[in-house]
């Protein structure tokens, strides 16, 4: 029987609907059966497992940055090392990706996989801190956040240097570097690591230190976030906290921007290591913020060259070490001891600048950018020059950035004209790096759009990192969009 034109169209439409229906049906069945297989493989895990069907799933995939979202196959709040071993074995068996999450601050949400369908091993419950005051060491569980670490160590008279945001996880942070307000004196968090325990791609507990698996030890101190295995604990060398510190805040008018950078370029790298500071240009403020490890009087004398030549409205505040930690966290003391996320949608770019510092045109260019960007933005210039980070050879650990005067983080909070802000940031970042800065960026401010990231994050260490990856994880089990690959290209 011949069908009329419209009858024929209806017939075709009907068949298309059937095909779509069957496709969705099989896809769902496939998904369900994959989930059942995964559930049964993970059944002996002691920690809590959160699957996409669970009520907590939606909130549990929200981390520090809400700009990106990935949908993991499961989030496992591992209770112990054995849980990680089971997770790794299941990921291998079922050929599912697997990734570690510590504090969830990855700028690109790589700790939820950087793609959908991955097993997330959340190490929050591995939160022991064991301090050996005699040896001046601490074994810190990979699930600890910086706030409680600063608090617990300082209670016993010790510190490790690290960043200022209390909710950052120690593992993601220290495995990529970790710089903060005590960094010119004590270096990076990663520079203070003595030993690392990690579950490798075979599901075995491995120790990396100067004597055991020293190649892995090299890689984990700067390129360790997510690429080589799941770190369970890190042993740090401790430093005694100073008896007193002086925090200082210099306020300027943005019209003095060149004058302030002239002083930073001239005096910054010559300052005693007891000083660490950052210059911050935001849409509303222009400040130099820092810490001096000593009393108020010495702080004023130490900073005199800069204050005399820039004439700020200056405050010097003498306080305890932990009070300064709380100050630079910009949250309450309770929120330092027991941190929580302050999630927002953001995007950032990272640059490094060598001596003699940015040119006048470079300073003007970044200042103009911040003032004209429609989203609230800031640039933070962290002084490295003359400090402990620069006294280590670039090939001693995977952290290659050892010859920089300062690192710059350019950060936009994405509200309002989000696409315009993102595009502006992207194109500005490319031009600014090409014209004014060194060709490097900080791997802890990871940026999926960064062209040439292998060189920019790891420089001359990259080839060595690839070789180590191919030795310890030849099947590339631990992978995400900017993980260390098993082959150079
Ligand atoms: C608000 C904010 C403030 C910041 N301030 C600073 C600062 O002052 N100084 C500074 O240096 N950096 C700073 N950072 C950057 C921060 O150091 C990085 O984002 C860091 O990677 C976060 O670690 P995390 O454990 O919290 O994040 P996660 O997202 O959990 O992890 C980051 C990466 O490390 C991997 N990883 C996590 N846990 C493990 C593990 N157990 N084993 C192996 N790999 C693991 C993840 O897979 C991921 O690839 C800041 C970030 C934010 C969002």
From TrEMBL:
GO terms for molecular function: FAD binding; oxidoreductase activity. Keywords: FAD, Flavoprotein, Oxidoreductase. Residues 68-241 form the FAD-binding PCMH-type domain. The keyword Oxidoreductase applies. Its cofactor is FAD. PROSITE patterns: FAD_PCMH (PS51387), OX2_COVAL_FAD (PS00862). It comes from the Eukaryota. Pfam families: BBE, FAD_binding_4. PANTHER family: BINDING OXIDOREDUCTASE, PUTATIVE (AFU_ORTHOLOGUE AFUA_1G17690)-RELATED, FAD-BINDING PCMH-TYPE DOMAIN-CONTAINING PROTEIN. Belongs to the oxygen-dependent FAD-linked oxidoreductase family. This is FAD-binding PCMH-type domain-containing protein. It comes from Diversispora epigaea. The lineage of its organism: Eukaryota, Fungi, Fungi incertae sedis, Mucoromycota, Glomeromycotina.
């Amino acid at each position: 029987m011949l069908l009329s034109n419209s009858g024929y169209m209806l017939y075709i439409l009907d068949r298309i609907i059937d095909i779509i229906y069957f496709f969705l049906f099989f896809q769902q069945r496939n998904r369900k059966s994959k989930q059942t297989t995964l559930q049964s493989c993970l059944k002996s895990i002691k920690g809590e497992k959160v699957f996409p069907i669970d009520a907590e799933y939606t909130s549990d995939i929200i981390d520090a940055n809400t700009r990106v979202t990935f949908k993991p196959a499961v989030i496992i709040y591992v209770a112990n090392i054995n849980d990680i071993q089971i997770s790794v074995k299941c990921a291998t068996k079922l050929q599912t990706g697997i990734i570690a999450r510590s504090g969830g601050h990855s700028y690109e949400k790589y700790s939820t996989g950087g793609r959908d369908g991955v097993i997330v091993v959340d190490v929050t419950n591995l939160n022991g801190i064991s301090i050996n005051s005699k040896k001046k060491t601490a074994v810190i569980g990979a699930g600890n956040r910086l706030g409680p670490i600063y608090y617990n160590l300082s209670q016993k008279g010790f510190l490790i240097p690290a960043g200022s945001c209390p909710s950052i996880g120690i593992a993601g942070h220290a495995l990529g570097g970790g710089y903060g307000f005590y960094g010119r004196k004590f270096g990076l968090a990663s520079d203070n690591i003595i030993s690392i325990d990690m579950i490798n791609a075979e599901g075995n507990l491995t120790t990396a230190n100067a004597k055991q698996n020293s190649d892995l030890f090299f890689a984990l101190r700067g390129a360790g976030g997510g690429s080589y295995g799941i770190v369970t604990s890190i042993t740090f060398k401790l430093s005694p906290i100073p008896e007193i510190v002086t925090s200082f805040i210099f306020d300027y008018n943005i019209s003095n921007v060149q004058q302030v950078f002239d002083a930073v370029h001239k005096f910054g790298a010559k300052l005693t290591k007891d000083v660490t500071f950052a210059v911050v240009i935001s849409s509303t403020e222009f400040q130099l913020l820092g810490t001096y490890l000593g009393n108020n009087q010495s702080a004023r004398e130490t900073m005199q060259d800069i204050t005399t030549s820039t004439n700020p409205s200056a405050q010097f505040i003498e306080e305890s070490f932990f009070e300064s930690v709380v100050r630079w966290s910009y949250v309450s003391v309770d929120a330092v001891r027991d941190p929580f996320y302050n999630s927002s949608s953001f995007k950032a770019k990272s640059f490094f600048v060598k001596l003699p510092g940015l040119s006048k045109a470079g300073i003007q260019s970044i200042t103009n950018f911040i003032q004209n960007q429609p989203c609230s933005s800031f640039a933070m210039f962290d002084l490295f020059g003359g400090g402990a980070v620069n006294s280590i050879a670039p090939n001693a650990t995977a952290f290659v950035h050892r010859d920089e005067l300062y690192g710059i983080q350019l950060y936009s909070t994405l509200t309002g004209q989000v696409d315009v802000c993102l595009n502006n940031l992207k194109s500005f970042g490319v031009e600014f790096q090409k014209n004014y800065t060194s060709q490097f960026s900080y791997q802890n401010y990871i940026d999926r759009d960064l062209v040439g990231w292998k060189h920019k994050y790891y420089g001359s260490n990259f080839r060595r990192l690839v070789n180590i990856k191919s030795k310890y994880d030849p099947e590339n089990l631990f992978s995400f969009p900017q993980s260390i690959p098993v082959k150079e290209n």
